[in-house]
Design brief:
The complex is a heterodimer of chains A (131) and B (286).
Chain A (H helix, E strand, L loop, with lengths): L1 H15 L7 H5 L23 H17 L9 E2 L2 H12 L1 H14 L9 E2 L6 E2 L4
Parallel strand pairs in A: 1-3
Antiparallel strand pairs in A: 2-3
Helix pairs in contact in A: 3-4, 4-5
Chain B lengths: L3 H18 L5 H14 L2 H14 L5 H13 L3 H14 L3 H17 L3 H8 L8 H17 L3 H10 L6 H12 L2 H4 L3 H10 L3 H6 L2 H24 L2 H48 L4
Chain lengths: 131, 286
């Protein structure tokens, strides 16, 4: 009799510890709220090289980005930054036109004409992509 | 053989009759299609039909607002979803359904990281609620406090999500929250000050060895260059040529150290939060 009573009490307690109504999913769906997104390789585009010139420029770019620019304060007023723009435009338009576009971009990197650019939503910098 | 005239007459008749039979979709039919798509989980299609319905009938049943809110929520458009849940909340008369709509609205605000407003809304719910609604409320309140970095109140609310009889799980949650390392380490200010004292030290403190070595090498190379110019030329030459570069990377170093510490601390907090939710979820039946 005593064993049966103890068993009933234990069974009652164990059922009581499980909350009815709210499902596991309803709790776990909030897991993503504070999820920290790990940075993916932002400069993976620089690794798609087609010829020796692109290999040299991409190598210089990656060295600058990973070892020099990563330690710098935010100084470029544009998104994408001048170095990213330079590589993208050389990849797209070739070395001659790409370098001209880069010099043009470097001359404009001063924030003196805010009315000429849209603001990039995430970085809050002037949006000036390669066209 | 049918003559050409008879064919023409037949064609015109079929054409006219089809026009007479065909009629526009009525509002209940639109709603029916929307509900069907909603039940099938085609939220984008359902939303179009619900919006069509609302265009012709601006005052709808609260369930319609609720469903539109759900559609927007599933399409990750949380701001619009919160607006429709709000309408549903004010349209429902039943307390349980009102609470359900408010919970959904608060969920959307949590996803938007608007924790203060979400908390204000969730705390407006009557304190006398019991059962499922009580646990839902405590969970949402806990998340809001966590988002506002009020970990003491967050701990209390998460503990309340567990039945009072389950002291083991409650204790585990308390232990997670009592471990300061989970919430306050590494300290971004300490990382920043350490990097100001010696470049790279803050990065080492925050656990980012690669960036620490990078900062040490860059600043010491610039310092070496400055010293060399000062010895070979004059101290003014060194000051005007190297100092701007040194200052730039020295400052960049301690700003980066602070950011690395913030990122690492966010990872620790996220892990503690996930562990807490796992513990709470394990007490749920299904």
């Amino acid at each position: 009799m005593l064993q049966k009573t103890i068993f009933t009490i234990l069974l009652f307690l164990s059922i009581n510890c499980i909350i009815q109504g709210q499902s596991k999913y309803e709790v776990l769906k909030f897991k993503e709220v504070f999820e920290v997104h790990k940075h993916t390789d932002k400069y993976s585009f620089a690794k798609n090289t087609k010829n020796e010139v692109q290999v040299v420029f991409s190598g210089l770019f990656l060295f600058y980005k990973y070892f020099v620019s990563s330690q710098d304060v935010v100084s470029c007023v544009f998104y994408p930054s001048c170095s990213v723009y330079a590589l993208q435009t050389i990849q797209k338009n070739g070395i001659a036109e790409g370098m001209l576009a880069t010099f043009d971009r470097l001359c404009r990197c001063n924030g003196l004409s805010p009315d000429k650019y849209d603001i990039h939503k995430e970085s809050r910098l002037f949006y000036d992509p390669v066209e | 053989m049918i003559s050409i005239n008879a064919r023409r007459i037949l064609f015109i008749l079929v054409f006219k009759v089809s026009f007479l039979i065909a009629g526009a979709q009525s509002l209940p039919q639109v709603l029916d299609v929307a509900d069907k798509q909603f039940r099938l989980g085609n939220y984008s299609l359902a939303l179009k039909e619900y919006q069509r319905f609302l265009f012709f009938d601006s005052i709808a049943e609260p369930e319609v607002y609720d469903h539109i809110g759900t559609c927007f929520q599933n399409l990750k458009q949380f701001e619009q979803a919160a607006g429709f849940y709000d309408k549903a909340y004010f349209s429902y008369t039943n307390d349980h359904l009102k609470n359900k709509a408010l919970f959904s609205k608060v969920e959307c605000m949590i996803y938007m990281h608007d924790f203060a407003l979400a908390l204000a809304d969730i705390l407006s719910i009557n304190d006398t609620i019991t059962g499922e609604d009580y646990y839902k409320k405590e969970l949402l309140v806990g998340i809001c406090y966590f988002g506002m970095e009020d970990f003491t109140n967050s701990k209390a609310s998460f503990v309340n999500c567990i039945e009072s009889g389950d002291s083991v799980t409650r204790r585990k949650i308390v232990l997670i929250f009592d471990n300061k390392k989970n919430f306050y380490k590494p300290n971004p200010k300490t990382a920043s000050i350490l990097s100001m004292c010696f470049p790279g030290l803050g990065q080492f403190y925050a656990g980012d060895i690669r960036n620490g070595i990078n900062s040490v090498l860059l600043t010491s190379a610039l310092a070496f260059l400055g010293a060399r110019i000062a010895i070979n030329q004059t101290i003014y030459d060194a000051f005007f040529t190297v100092m701007p570069w040194f200052q730039r990377y020295y400052q960049g170093g301690y700003v980066r150290a602070e950011n690395i510490a913030i990122q690492k601390r966010a990872i620790h907090r996220s892990k503690a939060y996930e562990d807490t939710l796992e513990l709470i979820a394990n007490t749920r039946k299904y």
